[in-house]
Amino acid sequence: MLENKIKLLLTEQNKRVKDLCTYIEVTDAGLRKMFARDSCETKTLLRIAEFFNVSPSFFLEDTTQQKTPTLDVFTSIHDNERSVSVNVNSDLVVALNTALEQNNRLLAIIEKMQR
Predict the structure, then answer these.
(1) What is the C-alpha to C-alpha distance for residues 19 and 27, in angstroms, rounded to an integer?
(2) What are φ and ψ of residue 78, in 5° steps?
(3) In 16-56, which residue ranges form alpha helices assigned H by DSSP?
(4) Cα–Cα distance between 101 and 89 in angstroms, integer?
(5) What is the pLDDT of residue 14?
(6) How many CB atoms within 10 Å of residue 20?
(7) How many helices and strands in the chain, by DSSP H and E?
(8) 3-state secondary structure of 48
(9) pLDDT, tens only, 25-62
(10) Is pTM, for the whole model, over 0.70?
């Protein structure tokens, strides 16, 4: 899961493995070991998230079994007035709540580590 998500972000953001390794201060072999274990230290995960400018929880979520959440927005204009109705898919609400809970857990862990 960690390997797939990192490779996805590398591709999406057009970044190089070498640059990631330099940023998180590991060798290419160290990164491959991390992929093989599918785990890393918390501080490394935080550096990886920082490198890609994503939340650390992105790497903890198992998206392989989740349905992709959708957000439908409908806009209509009537007599110079704009009304917007937003229909939020319940899967999106669940996904956002889950991500928020994971972020809160990570923040609590980080705060404990900094003490």
Answers:
(1) 11
(2) -130, 125
(3) 17-24, 28-37, 42-52
(4) 19
(5) 93
(6) 19
(7) 5, 2
(8) helix
(9) 999 999 999 999 988 888 999 999 999 999 888 888 76
(10) no
The residue extents of the domains of the chain are 2-63+83-114
DSSP-derived 3-state class of residue 65: coil
Is it the case that residue 86 has pLDDT exceeding 80?
no
CATH topology of domain 2-63+83-114: 434 Repressor (Amino-terminal Domain) (1.10.260)
* Gap between the Cα atoms of 99 and 58, Å rounded: 8
Quickly tell me which residue has 């493995």 as its tokens: 17
Enter the tokens of residue 36.
Answer: 């093989």
Q: Does residue 71 contact residue 88 with C-beta atoms inside 8 Å?
A: yes
**Which helix (H) or strand (E) is 64 found in, with range?**
none
Total residues found in the chain within this entry: 115
Instruction: Give dist(CA 21, CA 33) in Å, integer.
Output: 12
